[in-house]
Write a structure and sequence with these properties.
Length: 382
């Protein structure tokens, strides 16, 4: 089967890694897969394009103006038709909207849409309206896939009467994440007696990192524990977060080392993995922490409770409650039996539910179903 994966990527984050992992696994399974990378003419070479080329995955670059670009959508589908693509797999709202712009009879190629997550946290914001339009256009897809049960229950999918398929993200089950590279040298000198916390992700508002910084403040000042927090990643909120840390007097307790390639390889240096998000789909960094049996404290939003089996594999805290966050981090740090129990269960759950092999098998079944239905409709096969 010949699959074109469409995405407009702004970096190398969770959705991008899911796409590349899926493509790589499909290639090993005998599929022909191509990454269709959407962007504007002002964009240089994108990180996802570089990474795909690095691991030997073919890339087709589509550059066009922003917005509902019908001519850009036509160009994509002409390429797909010329190259005998059997199915188009859209990732993210821009790819979905572009595909949905064209009438079914014109494009003649079925497409499915994976909704990896909506990031808007404020109703009637610009992004909120984009995501509403995304949901309306998703009605035109042959199948809509969501990465968690919580996302499938979103009201914006109910309004256009979409019944999505829940298909959880998967990542590679490998030992490479134990390998220590030059990026991790800074972590080898951390004080053993300190409580060492790590957070990995884009530094943006939906990640709720101010809550995490307040939790560190409580751990230091109210619980009187020496603590070190490393927030790994880049994003638009970095300067504000650094300013916030200074105002709270915790600059000596918080580090912002920036983006680290394969950051999961440094998890071994830390005591607790934290995720303070305001909204999530099925976060890849959480799955990476589960894969190595990392003790986890995370907010109970989106697909996080589903991943952690309602708190059986990690500690869940209410949204925005920094004091509870602080208490739970310390509880996990100080209780060896609890930490070992949760870590073991998290690792086992990952093996059962979140490998790339399981994800690829389920997508393969969806592709076959969609393509067969398409052939029956247009070729009159009964």
């Amino acid at each position: 089967m010949n699959v074109l994966h469409l995405i407009d990527s702004g970096g190398l984050y969770g959705a991008e890694n899911v796409v590349l992992n899926l493509m790589n696994r499909q290639k090993k399974g005998g599929f022909k897969t191509t990454l269709g990378s959407i962007g504007t003419k002002a964009d240089g070479r994108k990180p996802i394009e570089e990474k795909a080329a690095e691991v030997g995955l073919p890339v087709k670059v589509f550059r066009m103006r922003n917005g509902p670009n019908v001519s850009g959508a036509i160009r994509i589908y002409k390429y797909a038709q010329k190259n005998n693509v059997d199915i188009i797999h859209c990732h993210g709202y821009k790819a979905n909207i572009l595909s949905g712009l064209l009438p079914y009879k014109y494009r003649k190629i079925p497409y499915i849409y994976t909704l990896h997550g909506w990031t808007s946290t404020k109703i009637f914001s610009k992004m909120w309206f984009y995501e509403l339009f995304d949901a309306l256009m998703a009605k035109r897809a042959d199948r809509v896939v969501v990465v968690s049960q919580a996302m499938g229950e979103n009201l914006r999918l109910r309004y256009p009467n979409i019944t999505p398929i829940v298909l959880r993200n998967g990542i590679q089950d490998r030992e490479e994440y134990y390998v220590v590279g030059t990026d991790s040298c800074m972590f080898s000198d951390l004080k053993k007696e300190d409580l060492k916390i790590i957070s990995i992700g884009r530094l943006s508002k939906e990640k709720g990192l101010c809550t995490l910084l307040k939790a560190v403040y409580h751990i230091k000042t109210k619980l009187n524990i020496d603590v070190q927090l490393f927030i790994i990643g880049e994003g638009p909120e970095k300067d504000d977060l650094m300013r916030f840390a200074k105002e709270y007097g915790i600059t000596g307790n918080v580090a912002f080392p920036g983006y680290i390639n394969n950051a999961c390889k440094v998890l071994k240096y830390f005591d607790v993995f934290v995720m303070s998000s305001l909204t999530e789909g099925m976060p890849i960094t959480l799955l990476e922490a589960m894969r190595v049996g990392m003790p986890i404290v995370a907010t109970a939003v989106g697909g996080i409770p589903e991943a952690l089996e309602g708190g059986k594999c990690g500690i869940l805290v209410p949204l925005g409650n920094e004091l509870e966050f602080a208490k739970r981090i310390v509880q996990l740090y100080e209780n060896n039996l609890l930490r070992e129990d949760l870590s073991k269960k998290a690792k086992f759950r990952f093996q059962q539910e979140f490998t790339v092999e399981k994800m690829e098998e389920k997508y393969r079944a969806i592709y076959i179903d969609v393509v067969n239905n398409h052939n029956r409709k247009y070729l009159n096969i009964n």
